[in-house]
């Protein structure tokens, strides 16, 4: 039996008083925790019956027996229970847990497929998954999928896709998807994880966090924790526009890299800061991403699980304080898309004024802005002297050539 390699669990944050009960009401609850603990505006019975109905339709399309599916899910039940806190599913009836995961897991998979542009094969008038239904309510579905504690474990997703032929056929189609935006890219990555991969995310929230952070083995990683001094003087971090006036330039990292790959380089007297590119397709979705990942990290924070994404958001909130900062990062290719004017507002909750010292880049803390201006000025002087020297050399060479030609002409 496979076991979890990391202490990351599909917590229900409401149980720990992390959020108020009314936050959950507009969302679709995934899994037995949601059905048992929360009510919806349509009522929990409506949600449960709808999910069971969807599962039955998929099993009919797949030619699969419900009893057989329950037996296959029972094989992974121990590891699914391990993905929840001790107070979660361990005292629940196994049959109830299996059936609820089968039904809601099926809805989860189909909703994600629809978000990624796959036609589900359901009747057009189907109330939940008919043509255009998911896209029409995509805001609600995304908030439900990325609500901390409302996740379906990856083990359930993999087992359902492998067991039910219709889901397997749809899974083949998402390989041609071209997701846009970090949330859709996260869903695509989550659904296309190689089953043989050793280290896999437990749920979609861990997958989102890994997308933001980027590769663990990145050789460009230069994050440091704590304060850094130069000759005993602490260097403050300023906004992007203020740093730009001091000789800093901002450039985007390649798409495959995240916040762990942020780096700085000296380039012709300037300090080039490389940051992950943020493509904004919706201000609401971006705000959802920031808030969800922050809540997820706080809930799982410990010796092994650090607040890396939260510190990255702290850095962004320090760099982006006004529309001038947005324009500087946009001109450098770090920001793109729509609703960029809303970024200072979205990042405001992550900003903490001095003396709070967020996680900084080693190079940013290592170069005094005044020193950067000096090097910028010095670089321009050196460049000017080099150009003048080259021009003078060319002029002397042309004069020498002219005198040589004139001498030969008089000689003849």
TrEMBL record:
Database matches in InterPro entries: DUF247_pln
Top-level taxon: Eukaryota
Name recorded for this polypeptide: OLC1v1019581C1
